[in-house]
Design goal:
mainly alpha, Formate dehydrogenase/DMSO reductase fold, globular
């Protein structure tokens, strides 16, 4: 990750030009999305919904593996010394968020793969007949299936928390230095995952359940955003100035319109009508939630880089 160079005496800064780039926000978004999908899949397994052959838990692993790999590739592109990335796995530092994250990302793969082996996609099963034997082996052992479900929820939760902790431990960036950031990223990851899974689930009951769950996540996200801003506004002067970046500063229009409005309030209103059978379920609301979740990462990353102690005037 590369540090941002800011101009202290230039208040007319373009808020979306001086940023890390697209790699880190995309990585954080895809990591949170996969984390949410793992938690949802693990819950469906643990609650024995996997007995339904149309359960979305059989579709999510392959999507999760693809999205997680894309996210890690995005992170790799941002690294300055790409040839030395392997050194992260030669040690483990308990006080380092990057060390935790590197190992969590590796441990996530076998857990998702175990979920995948419960019923491999047809294009894989046709090419590798031995996968049917593995499937039968797993389904003959209910305890193993329950452990796969718990593993998905546990590692998914750790991955979702990590995406927020990675930024919140950077004390030099007042906007990021909040204990609510990891909560925000975890809830946002669950919300975007519920929205995506809602669109691809074949079972009607699952779609209804996920729409209701997403309404709950979106409601919680509103409160978490409020608590994040309140926490900053009741802290030191630099934290207050950092909060103003989102409330009334350079990033406020995008924050209020695309994150709060398009990403939370409007889809929540639409989905409340849908689950109460006032209108038909529509993909518009889930797409807005997913778009809002992505824009949230871009804004938090960009505004956070501009809000540092050396830049006394955030306006």
């Amino acid at each position: 990750m590369q540090e941002l160079t800011t101009t202290r005496h230039n208040p007319q800064i373009d808020p979306f030009m001086q940023v890390w780039g697209w790699e880190i926000p995309v990585y954080l978004f895809l990591g949170g999305l996969v984390a949410g999908m793992m938690i949802i899949s693990g819950y469906f397994i643990f609650s024995k919904r996997y007995k339904n052959t149309n359960c979305v838990t059989y579709t999510l692993p392959i999507i999760s593996l693809l999205l997680l790999s894309l996210g890690m590739f995005s992170l790799f592109l941002d690294l300055e010394h790409k040839l030395y990335v392997w050194r992260l796995y030669t040690t483990f530092k308990i006080s380092s968020p990057m060390s935790w994250g590197a190992w969590i990302l590796i441990l996530v793969y076998p857990v998702i793969t175990a979920n995948l082996l419960m019923d491999s996609p047809k294009f894989l099963a046709d090419r590798f007949p031995q996968l049917d034997k593995i499937k039968n082996f797993i389904h003959e052992r209910p305890v193993l299936i329950q452990n796969i479900g718990v593993g998905n929820m546990l590692l998914g939760g750790m991955l979702g928390v990590y995406t927020g902790v990675l930024l919140s431990t950077m004390g030099s960036r007042p906007l990021w230095n909040s204990s609510m950031l990891w909560v925000l990223f975890l809830i946002s990851g669950l919300s975007t995952a519920a929205a995506l899974v809602h669109m691809i689930a074949k079972d009607v009951d699952e779609r209804e359940l996920l729409a209701k769950a997403d309404n709950g996540f979106l409601t919680i996200e509103i409160f978490v955003l409020a608590l994040l801003l309140i926490g900053l506004l009741t802290s030191s002067s630099v934290h207050i100035e950092a909060a103003k970046l989102l409330i009334s500063g350079a990033y406020a229009p995008a924050f209020w319109v695309f994150v709060v409005g398009m990403g939370v309030v409007i889809p929540l209103f639409i989905q409340l009508l849908a689950v109460n059978h006032k209108i038909k379920h529509t993909p518009i609301a889930p797409i807005m939630v997913i778009g809002g979740g992505l824009i949230l990462r871009f804004i938090i990353v960009a505004a956070g880089q501009y809000s540092h102690y050396l830049n006394a005037h955030f306006k």
